[in-house]
Amino acid sequence: MNGNPLFNLLIITLFLCIVIVKQSAAKPGHERQTAQQFNNWFVPSVNIRFHKYVGLYVEGQLRFNQFIHNQQHQFRTGLDIHVNEQISFMPVAYVYTWNYQYGEFPMAIVANEHRMFEQFFFKFKSGIVQWNNRFRMEQRWIEHNVKGTDGIIIREGWTYRNRFRYRLLANIPLNHSTMQAKTLFLSFWDEFFVSFGKNTTYYLPDQNRAYGGVGYKFNKNGTINLGYMHQLLTSANGARAESNHTLFIGFNYDFDLRNLRKR
Questions:
Q1: Which of 120, 181, 221, 239 has its CA 20 to 30 A from that of 22?
Q2: Domain 5-23+37-262 is in which class?
């Protein structure tokens, strides 16, 4: 652990919080239907640094059920403000989500989503382990669609919801002491989601993602990750859940354009 006792206390507290909220999601005496499913996600992303303090984040997510059926796809982007090399935040960011009918509990009517979010991120090292903390607050506008008598889907409006997310990630280099070029590393993270607000009917954590895998930092700017992610996804009323066993492939590249401004 880190020599700073405050850092050690913070990490222990965060892990305990994750365990507590995950345990609270299971209500004794309440039977819940759970579907065991197999998915695969491909997540490419880029960080574009324009200035010492300013950057842009762009991400796509291609999510499939059983490798061939569309599950959900996303486009995400946000303005990244770098306070220093350890702390950054996104004051404004946007996501568009394409949803599809899939699996054992398909949605009756497909509803896509617009989303705004704000994010705070900080990282630090504890020995050789690099810890990343991400806090995200989301404002979600989900289509409210109905099927007309002729079978045509009609949008009647939007349902607004709020959601909080927290992710704790640890990268452990295997062949170097730091995350430098040509580093093979292990990666573990857990993220939980809590919805709140007037349109929320299930106030316990309604989604959790736990990941374990390997990664390779092939140069100072690029990394690739391959691993297993378990996604527990609970329905809006808590009566049904998806236990999604997921092959996760991630790719990230950092473009630093600051030197171009000096030429």
A1: 120
A2: mainly beta
